[in-house]
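Subject: Sanity check before I submit

Could someone independently write out the structure tokens for this chain? I want to compare against mine line by line before I put it in a report. The sequence has 107 residues.
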Amino acid sequence: MLVIDDCSSDQTEEVANNYAKKDNRIKVLGFKENKGRCAARNLGIENASGVWNCFLDSDDIYFDNHLDVLAQLIEENTSYFAFVTNQIVKEKPKTYEQKNYYNKNLL
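---
Independent answer below. Compare away.
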């Protein structure tokens, strides 16, 4: 697991480093100055070692089954390379319709 701290104003780096000391699967990275969400995600992708990346921003939460749902989608749709799940914004659910995107369309 990678934790990317983009100069947060709370104790994210300290808390994450405490967890990293107890679990060598956790790696904490960050910047000396705030660079924004895109730079943080790019740093995460550059340092990722897994096959799949899953983002969780500081103002988001995962439901308990979030990663299980994504794992099932991956297993059932092996030709896909990106997935998105439903979200709730201000207690209003938003559902994404399933679409097939191809690399050329995203670039």
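---
OP: Matches mine. For the report I'm noting this point. Residues 12-22 form the longest helix (11 residues).
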